[in-house]
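Entry 14. Two folds queued back to back today. First construct below, sequence then structure tokens.
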Amino acid sequence: MIIPLPAVDGAQAQLGRRLRRVREARGFTADRLAAECGLSLARLGLAEQGRTRLTSAELHALISALHISLGLLQAEGADVSRLRRL
């Protein structure tokens, strides 16, 4: 059985791309970040693709695990190259 994926939302896709860039800059695998935040790997993957809207609790868990501010995650064009690996 094939289950169709949810549609990509433009604003969520931008947030998802920034989340992935920050995750990679911090040296987290998707598995590790999902586990530290109590998310399923599938849920994190959908969020990074812009196919789901994260709850405020999920966002808080992500920014806490990544040691960043919500502003950094929401800022368009934010430079994550200076972030160190955790």
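Second construct, same run, same settings:
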Amino acid sequence: MDRDLRDARVRQLLEEMSRPMVYALARAVDADVRANTYRHHLIDAAAALPLPVLRRGLADGVNVTDLRRLCTRLGYSSAGSAAKLADRLIAAVEEPTARIAQWRPFEQARAFARRLQLASQKEWYAFARGRMPDKGELPADIPIAPYAAYAEKGWTAWGDFLGTDNPARHLIDYRPFEKARAYARALALENAKEWYAFCRKRIGNRRSLPRDIPSAPDRVYADKGWNGFGDWLGTGRLHASKIKYRTYTQARAFVRALGIRNEPEWQAYCRGEIHRSSPRPIDVPTNPQRTYKNRGWVSWGEFFGTGNLAPYQREFRSYQAARDYVGKQGLVDSKQWRAWCAAGKRPPDIPGAPDLVYAGKGWVSWGEFGTGHVHPGRLQRRPMREAQAFVRKLGVRTKTEFMRAWHAGRIPKDIPLTIDRMPGWTDWESFLGVS
């Protein structure tokens, strides 16, 4: 690299450094440097240093935090040790196309940013990283981190840079609570969800909500009059923690008078879908199981007056007693069992799923339970010689006749329909005794 160009680029780098950084650099390579030396004299002395000496001075003399800030301001990665940061800066000096300090003036960069009509710092970074292609690309001479590059050259805040005029929250002088509440009530919004949706609305890149009214009034006015969004918006609704509910007995009497039978109906009523002529009073909770826990709550069945209990709360008959009762009903299979249950004939203390409730408590099979149905895999099959004698006695002469007799129930189930797959089988002629 040409010496004049190298000296010019070294001087550019030094101009970006604060006086303490330049002094620390000069002190690291020359013990005679005095603390009261003028900044431009320090820069003149350091600019004449060879690049290896300059790199060593940066790595050994300058605070690593200051080096990271310098790298960020110039648009380079700030990760790594002091030695790596020094290498990164010297490499930039040696590469003529690398950036040293060629940013646009602050006023021009700010004018460019304002034309983009971005609403926040988050949107600026999305644009800078190419995630908003409709806005174009970030020019090479405008930094991604303008607050660092222009820290001492005009930067005040993101609101000024982007043109949103939004100051930092801690700098805003908000309206008094009563005046802010009057503004919110004039919007005629129904709830907090609608309030936050209104706060997100924009006119250009500025929010429609006045600057001196907070989007989070519950935080700003927490100890200045805040009493919930019902009071803020003028709807009169109160947060559940501020409502004095009826006693459990009173709430239960109210709900039973409506004739609601189950929890889905109750939820539909709370949403205003049924019993619209009798809307839910504010002092009757939508979640009584939580509100009245340890204050009288038993179950939904008791609350509605139906007497229905959740399965885990029911006490069923013993397996033996349930089996004896079901065995007297004349059910022949599980299909008839389901139809019997659907007809409402099953007593409440006999479960609809006995195979689950009585698992490990005596359950064997549906047939043993009393329906008469036994799974084919559980049948004790008749020996081949006895099955052969029984079928020959019926006068069955062909395989087709055997199958018809089996389906008609003339052949018992302990002689399987697939008897030709059983051990000891030879052929149908031998089995049926025909030539």
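Quick look at the second one. The chain has six domains: 3-94, 106-162, 172-241, 245-312, 315-377, 379-432. Residues 3-15 form the longest helix (13 residues).
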